[in-house]
Amino acid sequence: MSFAPAELLSDSFATDPHPVYHRMRGVAPVLWHEPTAGWYVTGHREVGALLREPTLSARPGDGFTDRLTGTDRAAGDRVEDFFDRWMVFSDAPAHTRLRTAASALCAPRAAEAWRDAASRDANTLLADLDLNTADFAHDFALPLATAVTCDFLGVPADDREQLGVWSDALMAYLAAQWAEPATTRQADRALAQLRAYLTARTAARPRDAPSPCLDMLAAVGPDNAPALFAQLLTGGIEPVAACLATAIAETAAGPGPVLEADTADLVEEALRFDAPFHIVPRTATAELVVAGSRLRPGDRVVLVIAAANRDPLVHRDPDRFTPGRPAAGRHLAFGAGQHYCLGAPLARTVLTAGLEAVRQRLRSAAVRGVTAEREPRVGATVWRRVALMA
Description:
Blueprint: H1 11-15, H2 18-27, E1 30-33, E2 38-41, H3 44-51, E3 56-57, H4 70-84, H5 94-103, H6 108-112, H7 115-127, H8 136-152, H9 160-175, H10 181-204, H11 212-220, H12 225-253, H13 256-259, H14 263-273, E4 279-284, E5 288-290, E6 293-295, E7 300-304, H15 305-308, H16 344-362, E8 369-374, E9 383-389
Helix pairs in contact: 4-10, 5-11, 7-8, 7-16, 8-12, 9-10, 11-12, 12-14, 12-16, 14-16
């Protein structure tokens, strides 16, 4: 089996990455990629171990804003400071303080309390959909994830559209290979407006009104509050919507046993089969030998969880969607170790409620086919359209 370094930079990789991941893993579980100057780790055993490795830092390496100048560089510095305060990009002790502050809000018991609301939202959305014309990615999965996450965080319905605009601006900055002047300015404006919005919401809160989210933000302080809020908001919407769309597409397209499988098994298999986030970036802080490769301090390390989740050494016939497989619980879609996804309980709540509602609807309809189109996106699963032919 061979792998050409140019494959990671190709257009086809952005729309269909799994064949490339398969070839990379077939060559070696750890590969150096010269064009992007990074180590790519694709084996399940190696990725699982490195997610827990204390000498790998979650903080990104330097250089992202090097091409900015003048006022754009100052704006980039402000945006970088904002993202550096995200739990996903921070190390202990800062990471520990933020995670502790958010743990009560995101606890499994708190997420479970939203199951009935998620089911009601799912059935309400489905009631208005025509199975023959609906785009389940944008007409169902995204609105459901948005509604539940915003309710969970106490975001009023009238504020959600504006929050979506700010979120899009921040994510566009984060998704770029290098900080670009236009996206940097937009992200800087969005951050300033988000900060002002949270300050106003806190000031307008009645003293006796319970608000677990605002209590959490007050606990981390005004410098960290926008970052923590934004991470919980964005983490609960796009990746959950993407996974729900995957689950719907694979369930509807599968044979009878798939459609009749346990909903929880379908959710776990969707998380394994096509993880919403494909990679976890890390930076080596000490020399480390992994599968015969020597990583040195400062090296960029890319943990490819989407490849690890399809490692045939762990999952038999990994490219087949098989709910209830023996190693179902060993997927790494939510990460592992101290950075294990804090929102995993709520994500599973939304995914289970949404998929169960769709399955109930499909039982009374004969699905003749599924059209599922991916957006070209490196490092993540994003659906352009998921449509059913009933």
